[in-house]
Design a protein that fits this description.
Blueprint: H1 3-17, E1 25-34, H2 37-40, E2 47-51, E3 55-63, E4 72-79, E5 82-87, E6 91-97, E7 100-109, E8 114-123, E9 129-138, E10 149-158, E11 161-169, E12 178-185, E13 189-190, E14 193-197, E15 204-212, E16 214-223, E17 230-238, E18 244-253, E19 259-263, E20 267-275, E21 282-291, E22 294-299, E23 303-310, E24 313-323, E25 332-340, E26 343-352, E27 363-371, E28 375-383, E29 392-399, E30 402-407, E31 411-417, E32 420-429, E33 437-445, E34 453-459, E35 463-470, E36 474-482, E37 489-498, E38 501-507, E39 510-516, E40 520-530, E41 536-545, E42 551-557, E43 560-561, E44 568-574, E45 578-583, E46 587-589, E47 593-596, E48 604-612, E49 615-625, H3 641-658
Parallel strand pairs: 43-49
Antiparallel strand pairs: 1-41, 2-7, 3-6, 3-8, 4-5, 4-7, 8-9, 10-16, 11-15, 11-17, 12-14, 12-16, 13-15, 17-18, 19-24, 20-23, 20-25, 21-22, 21-24, 25-26, 27-32, 28-31, 28-33, 29-30, 29-32, 33-34, 35-40, 36-39, 36-41, 37-38, 37-40, 42-44, 44-47, 45-46, 45-48, 48-49
Amino acid sequence: MNRSKLSVLLVALAALCGNTLHAAVLTADSEVLAASAALAATIPASRTFTVATAGQIEIRLTDLGAPTAFSKLQLVVTNGATRVARLDAAGTVQFQADAGTYKVQVLGTVPSKAGTFSVDVHTVVGSTSLLLYTDGVAAVATASADPATTALDTNVDVVPGTYTVSLRDRSLPAALESVSLLLLPSTAAGSSLTFSGPCSAAACTRTLTVTGSGSYHLVVIGKGAATDKAGLYSVQITNASAQTVFGSTQAVGLMPQPAAITFAAAGSYTLTATDFAQPAAMSTLQAAVVQGATLLGNLTSAGSATITGAASGAAQVFAFGRVATGATAGAGSYGLKVAQGSSVVYEDAQVLPAGFDSTAVVGAYRFAGTVATGGNYVFTLRDFGFPASFAALSATVSQVGAITQSVAAAGSATVSLAAGPVVVTVIGRPTSATSNSLFGITLAPQAGGTALIDRTQGVGGLFKSRTLTVPAAGSYDLTLSDLQFPESFSTLAAALTQGTTLSAQLFGGGKVTFTAAAAGTYSLSVLAQPGTSNTFGMWSYDLSNTPPLPTITLSATPGSVSASGTTSLQWSTSNATSCTASSGWTGSKALSGTETSAAITADTTFTLTCTGAGGSANKSVTVTVSSTPAPATGGGGALGGLGLLGLGAAAALRRRRAA
């Protein structure tokens, strides 16, 4: 095979094989976002169906009108990050589908009660069913339960006999506004019991007579005082032998649920509560340890108290805090510890939710980890400034219920940690009640290695977070899209982070390329706000390998020609979709080929620029023009080339004769 035929064959192979590489999609999905939590509760679960063979698909959306008809009913179909079909009312829609998995999302609004709908997905040819289901949408709740009121509803097993029922208000943080108890026979025979109080100074006690074995239905309703909307009470039922049949201590309203602990042995213990004063001291910090309905010990302010009478076994730790009013109001953090000498039974750090007196959006967050080996660690707190910086941002690192390191603003600090649990608390306050901001934290060994804690957190009502994984080091493309269903977002932005490292950010959607130094997990924080006239919006994301740049092979044969000569240009490409010639040649070119140049009268450069999914690249080759020999001249006493040759021969003859 001659070189010319081989060149043509190689070019043809490149055309067949070299331009088939495309970006590999690693993960892609879509998500509906509601303008409020009440609206979010009405979104039906999405469903998926699989198309095995490409073809035409039909979807039918039906309003079943039971119990009420929809005032608005819409449907969207997505494939990964792409919207492929939509319906803005009950009806049918068809679309051309490739093989793959598709998601169906329905949105509905009903004027009252609830509405039901059905979705039927099938092939147009053959009418093969791909998905068929019925679901419902409830009307938006307009009233919420009183946050200060909590009900206990349970059953108590009894046998015939006389029982003492005791109800006590623990006045933590203050006396309840009201508390009532109802005890009714369920499957047992006997009298019923009902009473209410305050019962704070001494337990409210009543006698219950049971005549037949079975169970009683116990209901206790407590309401916290208006100031704190929180409280704590204990209820205990004992038989004639003073044995406890039922005993429990219950949180009311905004009182946080207790932490469960276990005493290894009976005895005395110490309860310690520490106000971290982050970002400022709390106005109230109280804590209590209980076993069943028995109060073992409590604190009415930060400090320590002795717990007496503890029996081996399970117990609970309750704590309540309230932040001060003013510029720093909104959240707080504190530490708790239960110990017996140097033996720690329980340790933790907690954050308070948004304060009762603050209208600003304040985020309070707790992140836990475990230190395997004691030593020096580096804690970093970063304000990403996405989409705006925090008005205030602070953090604490704590062990054994006490602060090990406090950070009053974004930055880094070295902290010495012992082996065991470690807790980081972060409190962030955006600039206003409608602002949203993003922070990241890392806690990692100073000598290097895997971080103990590595998190990103958005503060504000508009953030949604997804975890993305890249399989290896390399270049990746992240695409954020507004699917414009039902309408466009008024705000759409995203940040891609790893702990305290901002890898990429997008505003208003689009594509961004980032480089991953190694395989790992990233946090995608999406900030989205439905339009002012809409209640829902839908966004999607796509993470894929960055397509490679086009590669070009370009040569000229020969590389040097005589004046007005021509050359043969051969080229091939990969990862390209189009090519354009410039300099010594012009026009659009095939992705591979051979072409004879025009007459060349001077050194000429030929350039080929090719574009593909990964961008543009170019390649050049220069063809030179060889020098033309100077013509011979005579006259003026000058000797030509033959004359010089004759003189040289005569001189050589004379030298031989002389010898």
